[in-house]
Design a protein that fits this description.
The two termini are 38 Å apart. The chain is an all-alpha fold. It has a single domain, classed as Growth Hormone, Chain: A (Up-down Bundle), CATH 1.20.1250.20.
Length: 417
């Protein structure tokens, strides 16, 4: 007799289905908002502030959401967060429909949606290891990333086409509905919450936080990863949130449709990266994709900054296919490399962390590693009002290259992978 066919993991499928639908809606909205802000009179500083408010509330929520994710029902946290996000995004759709939209309201509501995600994310990451076998974690994380990227792959062209034809209102409506579908999908997950003994009240919350901090502090690998990503993400994340839309809109002569094509290339890079990492499924090989990813990111950043120089733009042709292909190629490599970093890191943490610490450790790790991102976006926004885009990018690229070299040298000496 042949091997018994493995039963599909219905709970994981429901989780992925909800995330996939929600990711399509969120990607459609978040892709267009920087362009929309520019179109209604916003500046580089406004885009930087938008990116800041898309990240800072998440970081504020993380320490508390990690504790709640380990104490309360993770499924219910996810459902409530998605329903709340749907409500706020649909308010944006209504304001836009009655022509009452303004930048202040947009930024404020975006901050609330980011806050809800801050509670949603640690609960999700804490639930995944309870839905799959420990030995399948790296492959599962690779599949999760692949499906999420596939959902975002169609978003750029849809977003640009809908925004050009119908305006921002429809995009808000689609995103709001996607959050509702995600919440309904998560409600069907069969998940049993095991209540653990814990100290009640504020004292207990801070006690649980400290336990998570201490766990990271005592882990040589997780501590080193935390410090590295704190610095590196502060320089890389604003590339996509601030520099890319601003440069494309103000320095190049391509259309919004071509901007959509570029976003598709970015998602293809992430897709290739997530699939490739799956081939490094054995835990003993996690060091290899991590080092490859860090090295490739540093090189891609230098190449990216070089393409922003006016002389290079002029040489290749401002609105030429040749320049667009070169630009897209570098961004493709950068996104591919990022997946070689993020998936192994998530697996390393899941493997090293007990279930009842999982949400806390992920939330604190995320708070540390993403801590530089909102400040970095804010600084980029103001710096770009004073300094040329290409000068800013080349300085950032040089810093990333140096930090990456130091990290690769040090991580080779650690035997905990």
């Amino acid at each position: 007799m042949g091997k018994e066919r493995k039963k599909p993991n219905t709970n994981l499928i429901l989780l992925l289905l909800g995330r996939m639908v929600s990711d399509v809606g969120s990607s459609i909205q978040m892709l267009i908002l920087p362009l929309y802000i520019i179109d209604i009179g916003g500046s580089a500083a406004t885009i930087g502030l938008f990116s800041f408010l898309s990240l800072m509330p998440i970081l504020i929520a993380y320490p508390f959401s990690g504790v709640l994710g380990d104490r309360l029902n993770r499924k219910m946290i996810m459902v409530i967060a998605d329903f709340a996000s749907a409500l706020f995004v649909l308010v944006l759709a209504y304001m836009s429909y009655i022509d009452k939209m303004n930048i202040v309201a947009l930024l404020l509501i975006q901050a609330f949606v980011a806050l809800f995600y801050g509670f949603f994310d640690p609960a999700t990451k804490g639930m995944i290891p309870q839905l799959v076998a420990k030995e399948d974690l790296n492959k599962t994380n690779s599949k999760v990333a692949t499906l999420r990227i596939l959902s975002g792959l169609v978003a750029p062209l849809i977003a640009v086409a809908l925004y050009t034809a119908y305006g921002i209102t429809l995009l808000f409506l689609i995103n709001g509905i996607s959050f509702l579908i995600s919440a309904l999908s998560e409600m069907m997950i069969k998940y049993v919450h095991t209540k653990k003994e814990s100290i009640e009240g504020i004292k207990g919350i801070f006690h649980d936080m400290w336990e998570g901090i201490k766990f990271i502090k005592d882990s040589k690998v997780i501590k080193k990863l935390s410090v590295f990503f704190l610095v590196i993400f502060a320089f890389i994340q604003p590339i996509f949130a601030v520099i890319l839309p601003l440069f494309f809109r103000t320095k190049l002569d391509y259309s919004d449709i071509q901007y959509g094509y570029l976003q598709v290339v970015l998602f293809l890079g992430a897709l290739i990266g997530s699939v490739a990492v799956g081939f490094f499924g054995k835990e003993k090989n996690l060091r290899k994709p991590l080092i490859i990813g860090v090295g490739a990111v540093s090189i891609a950043m230098l190449c990216f900054s070089g393409l922003l120089f006016p002389s290079v733009v002029s040489l290749l042709g401002n609105n030429s296919i040749r320049y667009l292909i070169s630009f897209a190629g570098v961004m493709f490599v950068l996104y591919t490399a990022i997946m070689f970093i993020s998936i192994p890191v998530q697996t390393i943490i899941q493997k090293a962390t007990p279930h009842d610490y999982m949400s806390r450790v992920f939330s604190i790790f995320s708070m540390i590693t993403k801590g530089g991102m909102p400040l970095g976006a804010l600084v980029y926004g103001f710096v770009l009002n004073k300094i040329d885009i290409h000068t800013t990018a080349v300085v950032a690229g040089a810093i990333v290259f140096i930090i990456s070299f130091v990290f690769i040298t040090s991580v080779k000496k650690i035997e905990e992978f």
